[in-house]
Predict the 3D structure of the following.
Amino acid sequence: MSIKIFIIFIFSIFTNGCGVKPNSNQLNLVMPGDPKSLDPAYATDVRTGQLCALLYDNLVRFGKGSELLPGLATRWEISSDGLKYTFQLRDSVFFQNGKEFECANVIQSFERILDPNTNSHRKWLFKNVKGSSEFLSREVESVSGFSCENDNKFHIELNQSFAPFLGFLAMASASIIHETKTGEIIGTGPWKLKEWIHDGHILFDRNLNYFDGVPKLESLKIRILPEALPRTAEFVTGYLDIMEVPEAEFPLWANDPEWAPNIKYQEDLSIHYLGLNCSRPPFDNVLVRQAINYAIDVQRIIDKVKNGNATPASGPIPPGLIEPYPKLKYDFNPQLAKELLAKAGVENGLKIELWQSQSSELLNLTEAIQAQLEAVGVHVKIIRNDWNLFSQAVSEGVPDMYYRSWYADYPHAENFIAPLFESEVSQRRWTRYSNNEIDALIQKIQSTSDEEQQQKYIQQANSILIDDAPWVYLWHTRTAHISQPNLKGWSPSLMFNAEKYTGVTKE
């Protein structure tokens, strides 16, 4: 089927209700659901992070790749012991309410994340800053490790060296804000919020005073469309300018000579996985966890369900962040899976629940996994819930097994180890996994600035996590985006909160 025939079909089902073509000076994007918030303090999901990039700026920012570039700071220095960071701040930068940006705003923004009254889940960004624990316990009214030498020079002092820290400052929750007396959160970013119709759309106007180049288009609109087919219908009829290509449709787009040149690919810093509840049977037994890994034909699912847009995973860390990338341990081997299950004493009719968020696109994946596990005697019941209920259930340790993904907050291998497998965090939020060796290696990775030595610790941690198998490591994805032929000045970024769309035009 050609894409044009496919389009005629879906357009007969899904049409835009207004019947009016969008403004030619407006950039039209899409999200599958509402963000959790537009407040950086609560930016724990990809959608909120993407929107924070439009509204706010950071001291440093991600470039198109993993590089860190000047943001509200023009340059920075790090002391030889890795404890003190000094930032030179920009002059003549203004918040969207006209108030001038100054050093005090940086302290206000960072202390707000730490403030218990804010109830941010990103307190860990600054837990290593000198005086943060005293501030959190309300013993003091300010964090001693944050200081302004003058209006243009800001200092951060850490308790101990922490190699990934600069990347923390480019994350959405480290955005610099001005909080008004009424509690309104204002940014310096290139786009100003005009309207948010929940489950409908989010509309922005450009900031004509933006310091880093006023957006070339007048406005930006993000449509909220949960399902893939309506998104496709809106794109092909010209109501969307950029769309992530749905996996099921990828061959149609990629093989269409008219549209294929407009597809742009991005290797993601991601890991898609099956989390296993290691705190109770059957997954408290490492043999069972390894058996599940051997029972799943990852490459076949990539080929048949994901249309080849992924790389089989060997551990949690994606290629590019670990060198060399380790060889695959869990090649598809159903016979070995059966033997390991027998050795673990659970070969006779093991029954488990596999949880997923309520998405028809994910169901194809989980049903493929279900069929492969059935072939080795593991009976799987798929449980689907909306994202909030699903996420809460995972945090509370309800599922035996769950399908989830993790995308890098910052481009460092540590981000695929510490937030996911550190004992205290994992026991509270993820797979209930605990390993003292991993905890010790995390400390070494975080405190070592020597990149060669750091990679040795990363390799050791990755090897343990492969052998211990708290997850079924599935794949690292490649995302395909398609844009309208008249759209210029856009290409996908490696980090999800890097894109500000200031240089995008329409011809």
Notes: The longest strand covers residues 471-483.
